[in-house]
Amino acid sequence: MRNLQGRLELCSINTATLGHREPLNQTIERIARAGFGGIAPWRREVEGGDVPRLARQIKALGLSVTGYCRSTYLPAATSAEFSANVEANRAALRDAAVLGAQCFVLVVGGLVPGSRDLEGARSQVVDGISMLLETARECGVPLALEPLHPMYAAKRAVVNTIAQALSICETVDPDRSGFIGIAVDVYHCWWDPELTASIATTGQANRILAYHVCDWLHETNDMLLDRGMMGDGVIDLPAVRSCVERAGYNGLVEVEIFSAQNWWQREPDEVLAICAERLQTVC
Amino acid sequence: MRNLQGRLELCSINTATLGHREPLNQTIERIARAGFGGIAPWRREVEGGDVPRLARQIKALGLSVTGYCRSTYLPAATSAEFSANVEANRAALRDAAVLGAQCFVLVVGGLVPGSRDLEGARSQVVDGISMLLETARECGVPLALEPLHPMYAAKRAVVNTIAQALSICETVDPDRSGFIGIAVDVYHCWWDPELTASIATTGQANRILAYHVCDWLHETNDMLLDRGMMGDGVIDLPAVRSCVERAGYNGLVEVEIFSAQNWWQREPDEVLAICAERLQTVC
After folding, report:
1. Cβ of A236 and B163 within 8 Å?
2. A104-147: per-residue pLDDT in tens?
3. Does B236 touch chain A (CB under 8 A)?
4. Which has the closest alpha carbon to A228: A211, A214, A213?
5. Contact residues on chain A for B190, CB-CB shorter than 8 A
6. pLDDT tens digits, residue range A74-101?
7. What ipTM was estimated for this complex?
8. Beta strands at B208-213 and A253-255: parallel, antiparallel or unpaired
9. What InterPro entries does the record point to (chains A, B) (predicted)?
10. Where are the domains of chain A?
11. For residues A93 and A249, what is the distance between their CA atoms, to the nearest angstrom?
12. Is the domain B8-281 a CATH 3.40.50.2300 member?
């Protein structure tokens, strides 16, 4: 496993970690100044802005873009809505290309509101991803399918385990084109009894496109916005990274923390300093 | 699949559904009067009371005991503590036998507080269950290992999928003695992409000992105490029960709802009436 001590160039900050409190150009500046090697911005910060200019700023500061967050949810009640969702993702993929993103993160969406058809939603997800794969190839930006914790199955993502995500990758891309893989986020998968085995199967296909860290707090008070800083929770972070790297992943380690009551209340530079310290000591 | 219309004798109420607001003898009376065929009491209502007397009351009213809730958590920081946990479960198994319970529900416990050793906790669970199996046989009360939703992995149970629970059953009981199986609770497993496949494998071994229903609310506001009434959420209940019965389960359908802000605020008889109606129409 790589030693991250003194290697902040191997580390990236997902801008959600700072709570989206400043314009993206300031966040870019801050993250570069703190010495990180990468950034993962969100569409809400990018869309409607001067995308090429942001891309130039990121490049000039030597940051890589470890991911562009995130897809419009795919499952829909009507085919017109479904098509609109796919189109919104195509537009985002074009921005991802301008930004030079290493992947476009797919958070696929939950059940159609009012529906109990989990299989149907999963099937729409496979269809939507198939349609996006061609655009990904044209844009040169791979799709990183992110399995979300099962507690988000109803509202945010019907893809909930690494094994399931990998199976979708094989279905839509049996030739392993390099344009679809997975994002492994420790928060979503740390509990999985099949974690080690599932990650081990990714090696041959080079399916891991991103690796996200944070921590699961023993006392978690909110299902969405109470993620912990690495080291403050129960996840054996070195064990997971070791698996991921044994499977061939050699990209950056990206910090993604949603924390309304704690980290989003602190000064951005303080948060970045603590991320840097924890990345080098407990990840 | 069995039709539950007019068949409340096939339905059971877990006493947690009523919020543990009354002494157990009143709850038993209420559940019998409402026409249900079974009850699943909790140790907090039983221990320290006159257990044989409660057992006689339950029997006289014609109720079966679909489960006795629930085990003391197994993983511990010291071997003395671990042994004490096993002993506490042995004592509970003896009460389960007095009550005539069809199974003793194993909620196995989370990580040892302060520890990140998930594998270690899982290994302690297997050891503890092996030790309890002999007592279960002596008492004539099978152990029903209940996989809990992954969001409880840290604090309540390191057994989180049906496949994992079944694998533990095979490890500790390769001869399929009938004294260990699983409790399938829709709340914990509805999201699992392997749900249908996992349940289908239980048939040969007759491993399903209990089947619990409630619902997952689209808007879930609390990770523990915000379960929904059947029909109010997103779970395709007939689909799950159909799987479970195809695998050979012919026991009662037990309602278990933790709901601090809604159902536990209502009159117990109202809750029971709504349970009865929903069991017959949407389960």
Report:
1. no
2. 999 999 999 999 999 999 999 999 999 999 999 999 999 999 99
3. yes
4. A214
5. 118, 153
6. 999 999 999 999 999 999 999 999 999 9
7. 0.97
8. unpaired
9. IolE/XylAMocC-like (IPR050312), Xyl_isomerase-like_sf (IPR036237), Xyl_isomerase-like_TIM-brl (IPR013022)
10. 8-281
11. 23
12. no
